[in-house]
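Fold this: Xylulokinase
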Amino acid sequence: MNAPSVLVVDVGTSSVRATVVDASGAFLAHAARPLALCSPVPGAAEQDAEDWWSATAGALAEVAPYSAGVSALTVTNQQISTVAVDRSGAPLAPAMLWMDQRANEILDAMPAPVRHKVCAITGSPVSSSWSIARPLWWRDREPRVFANADAFLTADAFVYSRLAGRRVTDPSNACFSLMNIHTDSYDRGLGVEVGVDVSLLPEVAPSGSAIGALGPRVAQRLGLPAGLPIVASGSDQPCAALGMGVVRADQVAVTTGTGTFVVRPVATPVTDFRFVLNRGVGDLRYVLMGMHYVSGAAWNWFVDHVDVACSGRGELSQQLLQEVWERESGRRAPLLAPYFSGARSPHFDDGAQATWTGLTLCTSRADMAYSVLESNGFGVRQIVDAMDDVCGEPASVVRLAGGPAVSPQWCQLQADASGLRSERASSAEASTLGAAMVVLVGLGVHASAAEASIACAASFESFVPNPQTETAFAARRMAYEDLYERMKGAHVV
């Protein structure tokens, strides 16, 4: 009998992907549908949750012909993003995404003792990266939405509700809301203090557990077998860490897409306001997560505002990258403080703003594009250094995944800018692989996450900082770290 395979849906920020993954971690079929991101007012980041579902349905229907050996279906997802739905499950407003900042004023007014309590119980510092910021914004700014909400759902819970008729998530998602990270259950008293009833949040099921089955009507639409088991996995970043084989405290996973997320396993809970203590997936109980906003979104913003004659963002992006890689080595470039959506780890400053410094009349667009890419490596190093302090040991390796990691030039720049030995995973879809591994453990195919990471082991290509440029990058990295403090308080209002 053939080993089972898993059908994984990954609801990301820029697309929804459906992939059939076998027990060895091989991808047997893959389909994707794009998602649009809308920013109607400053600080807003929205998507239509119905697009999450239509993109999911389209991608699943495309891979359905290759699903004969599939034993279970699961969903991994962009963390924090939340949609308010009515009793029928229809969205009452656009989903507020993880990078949405509109609740900042509301959160700033929260008493300090309550803020500390939230972090101690949930592991999440109170910031716009806390998913409960979204219901609080609806309560104060769009009371009709808040009053009519039958539930506030994460992206996975919304999709699960359409697949299996159950509003359910897992601990790695729920810990961004009002879940006690030590007990994996919602803290009703904390909900009363902040003003959100926990009964409006999706139920929490352990990662790797069965949560339902595919209903006959939706199965017919998708071309999948009715009754196909649906198993909880986890949110994208803990799954990505597992998919990259990051299972020890000296290993670090760095996933870059719309934003960059730095994940490191920890054996015991750590409360540190520079990071989010995230519930892991499977038997990886806790991971420390640092967030570097908004790397991919910053690049797209820059590309969209460069005025050259190209047919679209994709063509222009490739043209700019080519110009960056062809820049003269050692050419002076400006420094970017990339706080286009506030600062996250290690500062957690929602009011921080993006700033370029060192611009001259000789600065080219390639120099500015270079600074966008370089700043990601500087930000990662800042987070890894702070994690080293918390963990009491230096990271032995940084593993890279995500769309930009397909470029060896980008990976080398990240190694040079961070000054850290880095490895590129053979598969950029680390979240998908990790989610499949969680389900395979849940099905009993593998005994543990560590065993699954060996059985599904990806190969890695190493990138070592160039010793000839190490001193120059160290100086620029120090200047980058000073830039936040120098610009603090000088924000445009």
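The CA atoms of residues 214 and 391 lie 42 Å apart. The two ends are 65 Å apart (CA to CA).
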